[in-house]
């Protein structure tokens, strides 16, 4: 169903090449989540979700705790949550989520990342309608049938459960994130290769070699921006 999540470890290994950037992005997201509610993951579901996602990217516990303690300490850094939508080559679509303390700077940088790499920004709603907000979990050492059975026993319905190579991928409604997570944990599953909310393209497209190279350059440019937290797209990169 849409984006393939196999080879997730290889994708993460590539992203983790610049760990300081990954840690900085999570530090900001954790701080914002902790400031918007209780600075305790057990009392703040949004913060708990960010903590769980950070673990799948191997963010050290010390960095997670430092961001939460910063929020507890009364630091007053203010960030706006922004979403940009745009287009790349040959009908490719991109959604960019950002946290920023300077809206004008971020808008300019995102626009430049699109424009310098064969893309262009669109208006709000021009792309998002082709994506579905989705909770995604990846786990190993279980089969899809086993995971389906334990979720049925917990009376939890999900969109789909697939075996993708050595990983079982669970797709669920976004408001079911915590219910699915708790059901899996209650069944003894505590380690996830994926545990996050994403924007899943309703239909993926393929690009020829030249267009894909240009598209990947654009995605890298967007992902490298300090204020950008997540980049979603509808291109099958063949990973």
UniProtKB/TrEMBL annotation:
GO biological processes: regulation of DNA-templated transcription
Gene3D superfamilies cross-referenced by the UniProt entry: 1.10.10.200, 3.30.70.980
Gene Ontology molecular functions: DNA binding
Keywords on record: Cytoplasm, DNA-binding, Transcription, Transcription regulation
Domain TACO1/YebC-like N-terminal: 3-74
Primary residence: cytoplasm
Cellular compartments annotated: Cytoplasm
UniProt entry tagged with the keyword Transcription: yes
Alphabetized SUPFAM superfamilies for the sequence: YebC-like (SSF75625)
One of the record's GO cellular component terms: cytosol
Residue span, TACO1/YebC-like second and third domain: 79-235
Family stated for the protein in its record: Belongs to the TACO1 family. YeeN subfamily.
Protein name as annotated: Probable transcriptional regulatory protein SLU01_16930
Upper lineage: Bacteria, Bacillati, Bacillota, Bacilli, Bacillales
Gene: yeeI
């Amino acid at each position: 169903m849409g984006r393939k999540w196999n080879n997730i470890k290889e994708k993460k290994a590539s992203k983790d090449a610049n760990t300081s950037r990954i840690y900085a992005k999570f530090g900001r997201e954790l701080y914002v989540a902790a400031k918007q509610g209780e600075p305790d993951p057990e009392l703040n579901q949004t913060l708990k979700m960010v903590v769980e996602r950070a673990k799948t990217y191997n963010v050290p516990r010390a960095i997670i705790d430092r961001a939460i303690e910063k929020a507890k300490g009364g630091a007053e850094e203010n960030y706006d949550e922004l979403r940009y939508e745009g287009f790349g080559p040959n009908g490719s679509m991109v959604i960019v989520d950002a946290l920023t303390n300077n809206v004008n700077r971020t808008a300019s940088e995102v626009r430049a990342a699109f424009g310098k790499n064969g893309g262009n920004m669109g208006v709000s709603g021009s792309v998002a309608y082709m994506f579905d907000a989705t909770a995604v979990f990846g786990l190993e050492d279980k089969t899809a049938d086993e995971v389906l059975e334990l979720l049925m026993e917990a009376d939890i319905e999900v969109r789909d459960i697939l075996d993708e190579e050595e990983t079982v991928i669970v797709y669920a409604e976004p408001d079911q994130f915590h219910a699915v997570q708790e059901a899996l944990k209650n069944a003894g599953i505590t380690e996830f290769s994926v545990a996050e909310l994403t924007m899943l393209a309703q239909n993926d497209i393929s690009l020829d070699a030249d267009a894909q190279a240009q598209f990947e350059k654009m995605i890298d440019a967007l992902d490298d921006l300090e204020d950008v937290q997540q980049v979603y797209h509808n291109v099958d990169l063949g990973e």
